[in-house]
Design brief:
InterPro entries: DGC. Pfam families: DGC. It comes from Cloacimonas acidaminovorans (strain Evry). This is DGC domain protein. The chain is of the alpha+beta class. The protein has one domain (12-87). It is 36% helix and 9% strand. The protein has four helices and two strands; from the N terminus they run H-H-E-H-E-H. It has helices spanning 12-16, 20-26, 43-50, 76-87, and strands at 34-37, 57-60. It has a two-stranded parallel ribbon. It is globular and about 40 Å long. The model has no long low-confidence stretch (mean pLDDT 78).
Length: 88
Amino acid sequence: MHLKNQYKMGCTSGVAAGEFEVQNTIQQEGNQDLVIDGCPIACVQKILEQKGIKGFKHIIVTEFGIDKEATFDFEPAIIIQMIDKIMY
């Protein structure tokens, strides 16, 4: 998705810190923002909403059976499920 220029990575910490340039990049007109949270606490979503950023797609990776741990050991089919949810 990044290589196809559909989405690009942003800095949530920069938004939380009030970095104006980062916040403008996230809300550029015509772009669909994608928020990926690692667990149901949804810290990234909360940070963006507190800064008035809305209208983004949001996924929580633990809802796809990926445990919140420091590993990328999961079934590749899960990636397809996440992409389907993001794109449709």
